[in-house]
## 1
Amino acid sequence: MDSLFLRRPLSAFRAELETLPARRAAESPSYVQQKHYWLVALLVVTAIRFVMAWVIPISPEEAYHWNFARHLDWSYYDHPPMLAWAIALGRLIFGDSELGVRLLPVMFSIGTVIVAP
């Protein structure tokens, strides 16, 4: 293990480590500012998703899942029951409408965005 890195005096490392936080703070915006930008972006995208979920008509695949939510069961032939239960809960809140069918899937996407980074 004869390397130049190991031969440097310890005082050289201390000088670099002491100036490192100051250099990083000058180079990039603070963590709070970055978090604020993500929160604003998340709120804007969520508002757009809710508007789109309310305006766009139900597709045939969504109608297929909506039918599962109308006839709840513990399992289905080709799907797990989570989506049907989520749509049923959305229907309880907003009724049989586009937003009622898509409410919890939109909320799930928000949770995915929060958890992913």
## 2
Amino acid sequence: MTIFACFQGEQAEIVPDASGLMREFKFGSKRTIPFTVGFLGRMIFSCLVDADYKDTEAFYNASRAGRVTGIGRACRRFCRVS
């Protein structure tokens, strides 16, 4: 069965087994749960901000080097391909 089987009328479900990637997360005692959840939230948010910063930095570096296509040129290329 291919990955595009769902488009061919077959039922396909892809479920990766990620059970061994991360050990069980323990929140700790009732007294420390608010701190643990808050800290986890801050770490996740920090990862998202860093990822966005890296993506923005890559975009601006490409535009300075002249590798970014303007919107007008991109629209003309899209219309020509479609």
## 3
Amino acid sequence: MAKSNERKAKDKLIGLFFHSYPNGRLRWQGRILRKLKPGLYRAELYSWVTGMENGAVLVDREQMADEDWEFYTAAEWRFA
């Protein structure tokens, strides 16, 4: 039962927007597009200038934790 709940929690990342902070410095802003396999996700990046789509990266949950990613449910922060 715990594994089932854990899987559901991981899937909740899909569709969330984020900022990444490696070494305490802001690096990326984007959105989690899809889960490719357990622990590995495809993320779409957004331009700092226009807020428009600007590429994509593959990231794992360990990287998200190491870089202190912050997640958001809405995209308004891209245009602030």
## 4
Amino acid sequence: MAKATKTKKVAKAKKTTKSKKAEIYTCKTCGKIKKGRGHLCSVAKAKTIYTCRYCATTTGDPRHVCAPMVIGMKYVCKNCGRVTPYRNAVCEPRLIR
């Protein structure tokens, strides 16, 4: 009886092994993101993936700017060109007209 319980514990331990994270790939040419390597013309492993709050597009570019986002932007940095809806988020704010 004791041997049976030991094998059950071993079987449970094998079931709870950590699974691999899903690898995400991106196309160097068009920027498309996929979970698999297929259907991408120039495959590269994605480092960080961002999801846009405004259009729900997944992208590897942290500087992604879409049409719904542009409507809310009011300021641009005179030095680097970063756009933001908040005046204090950039070092040299200039109002967008």
